[in-house]
Amino acid sequence: MITILLGLSSLIWLVLLLGRGGFWLSNVRDTDVRMSGRGAPDLEWPGVTAIVPARNEAEVIARVVASLAAQDYPGPFSVLIVDDQSTDGTAERARDAAAPLGRSGFVEVLRGRGPERGWTGKLFALQQGFEASNAMETPSRYVWLTDADITYSADALTSLVKRAEAGGYVLTSLMAKLRCESLAERLLIPAFIFFFQMLYPFSWVNRASNRLGAAAGGCMLVQRDALKTIGGFAAIRGALIDDCTLGQKLKSVGPIWLGLTDRARSIRPYERFKDIRQMVARSAYAQLRYSPLYLAGTVLGMLLIYAVGPLAALFAGGWQALAGLGLWLLMALIFTPTLRFYGLPPFWGLLLPLIALIYLAFTLDSAYQHSQGRGGMWKGRAQAARSE
Questions:
Q1: Do 221 and 301 belong together in one domain?
Q2: Is the domain of 122 the same as that of 263?
Q3: Are residues 19 and 164 in the same domain?
Q4: How far is it, in rounded angstroms, from Cα 181 to Cα 183?
Q5: How far apart are CA 180 and CA 343, in angstroms?
Q6: Does residue 285 share a domain with residue 241?
Q7: Which residues contact 262 (CB under 8 A, 6 or more apart)?
Q8: Domain that holds residue 289
């Protein structure tokens, strides 16, 4: 039996290594922005409106506003913060941060309404911001959807627009670099990015001939007309994995692009393992379409992929132990580019089997929370329907 399991696990890792768009290389990044064609600097820069949904973000919103104000973008640019029923003074902090910037009308804070039935809170806030920006005297060509915990280098927006204009992309998205300082973050955050790229290989997402669509919700530059074409955020109003759902919808309209970046960074701390568990559990079961069958398959698949090799290396004998050790080293090697991106040493990759099992536990917790009517819990809201 162990021989069969080792064979199956080896086959899966061979497919991941050679047949999954090279996701593990982590080499699709925003460092190759073209300076010619439609994105040439001598052309007129299109207008951009940043829409920032913010719910109880008083601790970070001032830094976010300052980061947006520091953009060196040469075209028309404004910021609309949608205060999503905050109770911690988020709106006041945002206004206080905007006041001394000396850019009249640059930041507007909109008091949002609570989500209507069938909507998640974030998407309803984004829809309100989108409607407000559509009502402006001269609506911008692009809307920049950015989370309330993301800060940017000064050239981030300029780089985004260059790429979007050069490629004619209806969606240009950056996977923000998440904070990686606490023990919990260093152990689990790089793997979060690794698993995301495994599910949504960026090279496939960016290939027009491939049907896979995805995006990273922290930073998405979207053509306004394309967003109108799909029906705005109403088209995905109940989606918990809203970024990838939006990416899939927009890819039906035109080309999209997704990549890693150092220009966008999340300043949200995940000091405790509990914090990361809550982040993952919010949408993990939704990724499995709330299906117990898919959940069972995921459990078996994760054990086959990540547990068989290390268990054979530790407890089998002879060639089976050597084969298990080879698999263990292979998965550590494949994990290395992501670890390097986060400044962690290669030997950290030996922990990938343990990390994968932790994420599996988070996924099981996600299913449990959904069964208890707490699915999609975020900032005090349960946004997924309770299992019947």
A1: no
A2: yes
A3: no
A4: 7
A5: 9
A6: no
A7: 153, 177
A8: 2-23+277-371
Q: Taking the alpha carbons of 144, 145, 147, 148 in that order, is the dihedral positive or negative?
A: positive
CATH number for the domain that contains residue 159: 3.90.550.10
Enter the tokens of residue 70.
């520091």
One pLDDT digit (tens) per residue for the chain, 388 residues? 899 999 999 999 999 999 999 999 999 999 876 544 444 455 689 999 999 999 999 999 999 999 999 999 999 999 999 999 999 999 999 999 988 876 657 899 999 998 999 999 999 999 999 999 999 999 999 999 999 999 999 999 999 999 999 999 999 999 999 999 999 999 999 999 999 999 999 999 999 999 999 999 999 999 999 999 999 999 999 999 999 999 999 999 999 999 999 999 999 999 999 999 999 999 999 999 999 999 999 999 999 999 999 999 999 999 999 999 999 999 999 999 999 999 999 999 999 999 999 999 999 999 999 998 887 777 777 676 544 3
User: Same structural domain for residues 14 and 80?
Assistant: no
Give the end of a domain, one of 270, 287, 302. 270
With b for 16 or more beta-carbon neighbours within 10 A and e for fewer, the 224-248 pattern comes to bebbebbebbeebbbbbbbbbbbbb
Amino acid (one-letter) located at 353: P
234 in any annotated domain: yes
Residues 149 and 125 in one domain: yes
- Looking at the structure, do residues 162 and 308 belong to the same domain, yes or no? no
> CA 247 to CA 171: how far, in whole Å?
7
pTM beyond 0.90: the answer is yes
Are residues 52 and 92 located together in one domain of the fold?
Answer: yes
Domain boundary among 220, 252, 270: 270
Distance CA 235, CA 255 (A): 18
Alpha-carbon distance of 371 to 311, in angstroms, equals 32
Name, in order, each residue with C-beta under 8 angstroms of 242's C-beta and a sequence gap of 6 or more: 120, 122, 123, 217, 236
State how far the alpha carbon of 73 is from the alpha carbons of 45, 48, 302, in Å.
Answer: 9, 9, 44
State the Cα–Cα distance between residues 193 and 245, nearest whole angstrom.
18
Number of domains, the chain: 2
